[in-house]
Amino acid sequence: MLKEYLENNIHFLPNVSDWKQGIRESAQPLLENGTVEPRYVDAMIQNVIDNGNYIIIIPEVAIPHARHEYGAMKTGISFLKLEEPVQFPEESPVYLFFALASETSDGHLDILAELGEVLSDPDKVEELKQAKTASEVLNILDAI
């Protein structure tokens, strides 16, 4: 399921100006395909402002998200890999973003379970950090 959701939602950038731009860029595919409205992206940023770095679930990996009522039209996930990490508040560097949306309060749980499986393997996280193409990312996810 994770691989299918990510199929056309993977992109790479050398860097971003700040963590807010990182969240915006990570959610761009979800905006483009109608999974989320622009206000959903604003809510993802506001979550970090209000609640801190809780979206950084393991070192160097963030899962920006917001409550579905803030403009999630469908369930979806996108992936952004930065060549240079962006600093979040409290000097927390992030290379990998998985922007997550769900049109219901629990519609994303299967995706999160699969993602958790990948991210609990330090070798897979390192492979994702080294990936240069969308097909490489999909192959890493295929191996779970």
Automatic annotation (TrEMBL):
Cell division listed as a keyword: no
Pfam families with a match to the protein in the record: PTS_EIIA_2 (PF00359)
Domain PTS EIIA type-2: 3-144
Top-rank lineage group of the source organism: Bacteria
Cellular localization per UniProt: Cytoplasm
UniProt xrefs under SUPFAM superfamilies: Phoshotransferase/anion transport protein
Main localization of the protein described in the UniProt heading: cytoplasm
Keyword annotations: Cytoplasm, Kinase, Phosphoprotein, Phosphotransferase system, Sugar transport, Transferase, Transport
Function description: The phosphoenolpyruvate-dependent sugar phosphotransferase system (sugar PTS), a major carbohydrate active transport system, catalyzes the phosphorylation of incoming sugar substrates concomitantly with their translocation across the cell membrane. The enzyme II UlaABC PTS system is involved in ascorbate transport.
Name the UniProt record assigns to this protein: Ascorbate-specific PTS system EIIA component
